[in-house]
Specification:
CATH architecture of the largest domain: 3-Layer(aba) Sandwich
Structural class: alpha+beta
CATH superfamily of the largest domain: von Willebrand factor, type A domain
Helix content: 10-25%
Strand content: 25-35%
Distance between the termini: 37 Å
Length: 570
């Protein structure tokens, strides 16, 4: 029987949000002589920081069609903070062999990111297939749906009746252990109740558990429950069930039963009274009935909307960039400058901008990004500005795409005079003004500030952050160069919430990281950028959700229903 130890893999074993991608094609090339093509789509994924593509999966092959709607889905773990590159190759196959390399004809391919699919209107993305010179290869259509809501929390309470007596001088000290079944037939522990001392009829306290930890989105997947008698003097052994060898107690096994999330979600009824069975006792005793019963007293699921729900419902991420043009960065024409434009590689500012921007742009439909500089003297009169448009258009600071932002940044370096001081408050207040006009939940603003130095207007900046914390807005600060950024940590409210004039920020909206911590020692810029983006963007989904929840906003269209529809069969 499974033994119970101190290792609790509840959180480490629960996978990330899973996205199901459905694929269709239209107007594919017809390459068969006496019939139409027999298409199949193969998905390849690219590892972070590498150029290597590996096959992730393939659809079924559909006979004789140029407009296939594939039934087999691709289910991928989804991470907002990562750029998840995908490649879809379409083939016509004349054999049902798993080795299609010898029996295929190439029909076209396309590239995209998982974020692009999710961030498209209604999470539906249409792309043109290419790869065959001089041929129109048709189109491929992707639709994405979140498989289950990782934020669903189930609360349940159970009791037991007439459990076996295990203690010589008393009754039993029972507790329950819940296991989620895995696809390979193994079980993963997902919850352990408290121990109720000296009773054969325990009533355990209500407990909560993530639905994903219980069934991983499969409502009919087996949930196994073991009933144990806690043993004060239990024998010890070493288990390899955890990542590290751990000394654990083997408690007295009373029995087990199985159920499912769908069954539990029906609540208290005659179907949720379970016989606790001990296979060893059942095999030895002819008159054995059970080792007691366990009854579900209550079951409730609370659903919260996810980041994906809001994106699918039309919420747009508005990305704004602010770049430090103070003199401490050094002369841009010198290789020692943090702004130096090398013909061989990007500087730290460009790397940070590209790393974060290429992920966020997938969630902004118009791909227009306001971009500003601060701390420079501007021609023709040499006035100092702490929020000047990089494209020099005072009426419209938008740049087209991340490449447009980079182009405007490089152009500004040629005309602006790096000066100072390093003031953050003006640019934070500028974006906050835009966010204040979009308070209904359809827009969320992300400000990326890239800087090399210590903040000069810390008092004003803290006040600006506190004010912005009540708005649909997040602030990412990336520190570049060798300077010490101790003061920046004060703005990153992970430990202590930012305050100004005795008023604390309503939410934690600032994420600060020093870029030097993410530089790959081998000089792999792609890997450095991926590491940076992963950390600085990791908090954005929760920050967006915290704003929406604080205002009681729901996605504009509830496209995802996270709880199963349970129908009692008569």
């Amino acid at each position: 029987m499974a033994s119970v130890g101190q290792c609790d893999p509840l959180h480490s074993n629960v996978p990330a949000t899973k996205i199901e991608v459905t694929v269709s094609c239209r107007n594919l090339l017809d390459i068969d002589t006496f019939s139409k093509s027999d298409p199949v789509v193969v998905l390849y994924v690219q590892g972070i920081g590498t150029k290597e593509w590996r096959e992730f999966g393939r659809t079924e092959m559909i006979d004789n069609t140029l407009n296939p709607d594939f039934v087999r889905k691709f289910v991928l773990d989804y991470f907002f903070e990562e750029k998840q590159n995908l490649r879809f190759d379409v083939y016509s196959v004349d054999s049902k062999s798993s080795n299609i390399s010898k029996h295929k004809s190439f029909l076209g391919q396309t590239f995209c990111t998982l974020g692009e699919i999710i961030g498209s209107k209604g999470s539906r993305l249409e792309r043109t297939l290419s790869g065959i010179p001089g041929k129109k290869c048709g189109i491929i259509i992707f639709t994405a749906e979140e498989l289950s809501n990782c934020r669903d929390i189930a609360t349940m309470q159970l009791c037991a009746n007439k459990l076996d007596k295990k203690d010589f001088f008393g009754k039993s000290d029972p507790f329950l252990v819940f296991y989620r079944s895995n696809e390979d037939g193994t079980f993963t522990i997902s919850h352990k109740t408290e121990v109720i001392k000296n009773t054969l009829n325990p009533v355990w306290q209500p407990f909560t558990i993530p639905v994903r930890a219980l069934c991983n989105g499969d409502y009919d997947r087996t949930v196994k429950v073991d009933v144990y008698d806690w043993d004060r003097d239990g024998r010890y052994c070493v288990t390899a069930s955890c990542l590290f060898q751990t000394t654990i107690v083997i408690h007295d096994f009373i029995g087990e039963f199985t159920t499912s999330y769908r069954e539990l979600s029906r609540g208290q009824n005659q179907f949720n009274v379970y016989e606790v069975l001990n296979p060893k006792k059942k095999g030895k005793k002819k008159k054995y009935i059970n080792s007691g019963t366990v009854t579900l007293l209550s079951f409730n699921v609370e659903s919260e909307y996810t980041f994906v729900d809001f994106i699918r419902g039309g919420t747009q991420l508005n990305f704004t960039v602010a770049i430090d043009f103070t003199a401490s960065n050094g002369n841009p024409s010198q290789p020692s400058s943090l702004h130096y434009m090398s013909p061989y590689q990007m500087n730290a500012y460009a790397m940070a901008l590209k790393a974060v921007g290429e992920i966020i742009q997938d969630y902004d439909s118009d791909k227009l990004f306001p971009a500003y500089g601060f701390g420079a003297k501007l021609p023709p009169d040499g006035k100092i500005s702490h929020a000047f448009p990089l494209n020099r258009d005072s009426e419209d600071a938008n740049c087209v795409g991340i490449e447009g932002v980079l182009e405007a940044y490089f152009e500004s370096l040629r005309t602006a005079q790096l000066y100072g001081p390093t003031n953050f408050a003006p640019i934070i207040n500028l974006v906050a003004q835009m966010a204040a006009h979009e308070m209904e939940g359809s827009q969320y603003f992300v400000l990326l500030i890239i800087t090399d130095g210590v903040i000069s207007d810390m008092v004003q900046t803290k006040e600006a952050v506190v004010n912005a914390a009540s708005l649909p807005m997040s602030i990412i600060i990336v520190g570049v160069g060798p300077a010490e950024f101790d003061a920046m940590e004060e703005l990153d409210g992970d430990e202590v919430r930012v305050s100004s004039r005795g008023r604390f920020a309503e939410r934690d909206i600032v994420q600060f990281v020093p870029f030097r911590d993410y530089i790959d020692r081998s000089g792999n810029q792609v890997l450095s950028m991926a590491r940076l983006a992963k950390d600085v963007l990791a908090e954005i989904p929760d920050q967006l959700l915290s704003f929406m929840k604080s205002r009681g906003f729901e996605p504009r269209t509830a496209l995802c229903s996270s709880s199963p529809q349970i129908h009692q069969e008569v």
